[in-house]
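On to our target:
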Amino acid sequence: MKKLVLTLPFLFLANLALASGFALYEFSARGNAMGGAVMAGEAEPASLAMNPALITELPGKQIQVGGTLVTATGHVVYGNYSQESKRQWWPLPNFYYTQQINDRWWAGIGAMARFGLSNDYDDKGWMLPPAGIGASLNHVGVTTFSVQPTVAFKATDKLSVSLGAEVQYLNFTEKIRFGNASEIDADLNLDGDSVAVSGIIALFYKANDKVNFGASFRMRNDHSVKGPNKYDYKNDSPSPLPTTPPFTPVFNPAGNFWGDITFPAQLALGVSYRPFEKLLIEANWTNVFWSCFRAVDIYFDHKPIYGTYGLMGTHEGNSKQYQDAYRIGVGAEYTLSDKVKLRGSFIFDKSPLNQEFMDVMLPVDDRYIIGTGAGFKLSENTVLDLSYNLLFATHLDGVAADHTTKVHYGSSTSHLMGLSIRYKF
């Protein structure tokens, strides 16, 4: 059947993610409190997510479970339309297990979310025009969950190397309403899935008693999303539409859709410094290769009646042109006593969005994040970590891909609360 190319609808409106683009870095409460600067300092099972070569510093068998609870809102103006996203709460769970095999080899497995975004609106038709036919996004969700088996090898007393595979599951859901402000024609529901496999390589180097270095490279994830789409009619028949191309007056009520989504590769570097025994200071830099995110389209195996109305457009008119972005984090950890450690951090997270191709996917620009937290040694084998982060996103003005429609992102804030429990067998 003839294919109709449409812009992947979630690119037009989604709530703010927590990091560059819609990457996530909330892998543990300690990592949150340290601003993600956990590449080269003290190891924990969650090191599997940032620098798995660090697990060679973990003796015996260790397990860590936890998660981060996130709440956020956003404000966007797209042409003549304006809306606040509904405040929501998202859990980001994680699990890690590490085991020392012998004096040289370690193994581990981690499970975490590395990319994601979500958004809902109480007003399901907030972008519908006064008359005619338009489209209004009222829900979008992009959920990923990764499982990462890893091996690490202590090449020398100072150098450790690790290799891992990432099996990443992606679920994409969306709901779009068609019609106008006074009459609703139909709702379109999409629900698709994908699995992608990539890899990670990491290094850890002990320079001396005070300074350590860490590095990791994660390969990109290439997803091919597939799933059903369904129209839920509100009237007996759709409203009349113009028959002049490229608009089409008929469509099938249901079918399938598919499309490609690429999550970028990441290169991270970190250095830790211990000026005296009780204080650890660490900084890291992460480059996210978002320039691979040029344009994302989905395809239908039928002709949707609404053609290029509203949120839907042609391939040429929906270029995203993301730019490579970076994230800088600095964290400090102070050992208050044998049972308590205090932590604090600051992060600058550069947005990959292009002001000449703003698509309202993420209604936020650059992000500044302040973090704090503490670790509590509950017993000889058990540690509880808590964290809190406040994220502030700056406003941004630009134009959509048509270079005509003005787009504005308002300043916004997010709150992140983390908890992790570590146990050594």
